[in-house]
Amino acid sequence: MEASSKSNESIDFIDKLSNAAGIFSGWLMLLVSFCICYEIVSRFVFGKPTIWVYDVTTYALVWYSFIAAGYALKEGRHLHVDIFTERCSLKVKIVLEIVGHICVLILACVILFYSVETTIDVFISGEAEPTLISTPLWTIYAGMVLGAAVLSLQAIQELRKSMRLWFTTQPSDSTYSFVFRSQWFCVLILFTLVGIGVFMIGIERPALGIFILVITMLTFGIPVFASLGLAGVIGILFIFGMNGLPQVSQICQKATESNVLLAIPLYVMAGQLLQSGRIGPELFAFASAWGGHIRGGYAIATVVACGIFAAVSGSSVATAAAIGSIAIPEMLKRGYKPSLAYGIVAGGGTLGVLIPPSGCMIIYSSMTNVSTGALFMGGVLPGLVLVGAFAIYAFFAADKGITQEKSAWKERLAATRYAIWGLLAPLIVLGGIYSGAFTPTEAAAVTVLYGLIVALSRGTIRPREIQTVISDGTLSSTMIMMIIVGA
Fold first, then answer.
1. Nearest to 345 by CA among 383, 394, 415
2. What is the rounded distance in angstroms from the CA atom of residue 325 to the CA atom of residue 159?
3. What is the mean pLDDT of residues 51-73?
4. How far apart are CA 441 and CA 256, in angstroms?
5. Residue 178 pLDDT more than 60?
6. What predicted TM-score, i.e. pTM, was given to this entire model?
7. Which residues, in sequence order, are CB contacts of 451 under 8 Å at separation 6+?
8. Cβ contacts of residue 435 below 8 Å, gap of 6+?
């Protein structure tokens, strides 16, 4: 009993540590938003741009990406492919979960070891970034060390949970729902394919070998960032030997030290704040008040609301969640077919990929050095065309008899008054970018501050709830950042 109590205490400690890491990351990104807004004010109001905000906020992204990774693992938010695993028996799923946690642990330990080594080296040498403020390099790598340590501990934690579940789960008497009859045969196939991939790298076929490794690990449900990262580590090891592995820490640092990519967690947090501040339901109420009386009006209102919210959050997931939570019940209550109700939200959610600010465009911009603003401008017209196409489809797909009475002008004006804060947000973001007032990353910071002020002033988010909202806002963005690291 005493040993069990100590085990539970260690589990609680690791979970609390990961929670603290998520909270810290959320506050860090909120602080970054305030710093960037200070830079905008200093530049336009006082005519004195700062020399430290750009560098410091970019370095903060390195800390954010790694420190929040353990929290995302605890919450099960790291992306993985479940096409195969969802068709397996419970025992097979547990085995594959164990393998996945081991892969995450190995990658985290590799990053941790070489990050510690690099941090010590640059601390002793006194090496600094070649910028005006000459930031010591060890302060940047220290965030990677802390984050990799938390990720390693959380991976051990998840591994222990899966192992315990394995020993307490009774095997099913029914045959497995996929082609495999035994979890051991499934695992054997996994390791055989991994062995083939490693062999291909060893015989100087690195591209084919890495391709086999990545596809195999993705198919068997290993988190995407771990699949990509481990394949890269194995490739470095076989091509350059042990002398090449110190590159891992440098690759991780360079992958996340990007002012362009900083816009991703900022827009995601802005979407989280606006979603928690009930902006989404108010946008839907506004659209349905003005057009709900026409054929398919509520489905059209869903598309319009998705388009407006996408122009603020830059996230398809946030858009679908914010609008769908209120739109789907309203459509079903009024007799819309479930296929249309769910389908129009799923389709409207994809507008977050196309209508600026788009997370995909930000990633593409950082990888290709194409102007983010130019990409945003190129996405406006296609996004509007897609909104129109979805609306036309909703009009003809809806049953003719499903309509409601036309809203009175008083109701329309009331809905507009409540939705004005959500309607202003895209104007602030896109207007600021296209007028040249601020960059896409600065626009994201302005949106975060705007969403926070609106939510607090209206009482839709209480001060004590801020911590929960901003920590939840780290989950999707750190998942994206870790995939970039792995890639």
1. 394
2. 34
3. 87
4. 15
5. no
6. 0.81
7. 270, 273, 274, 277, 279, 425
8. none
